[in-house]
Fold this protein.
Amino acid sequence: MTFSHDLAPLLVFYVAVAVLAVLVWCLIVYLVLRLAITHGLRAHQRWIDDGKP
């Protein structure tokens, strides 16, 4: 089984797409977690400001 040099650009393309997909997925996870944590902290601050310890 030999590696064809004609397939090298295609392999590079597939690897680049996979890396980009992972980076986009990580960015989405980061934004969702950031939004959830911010929402929780704001809700907790409102709860404390209403006088409930």
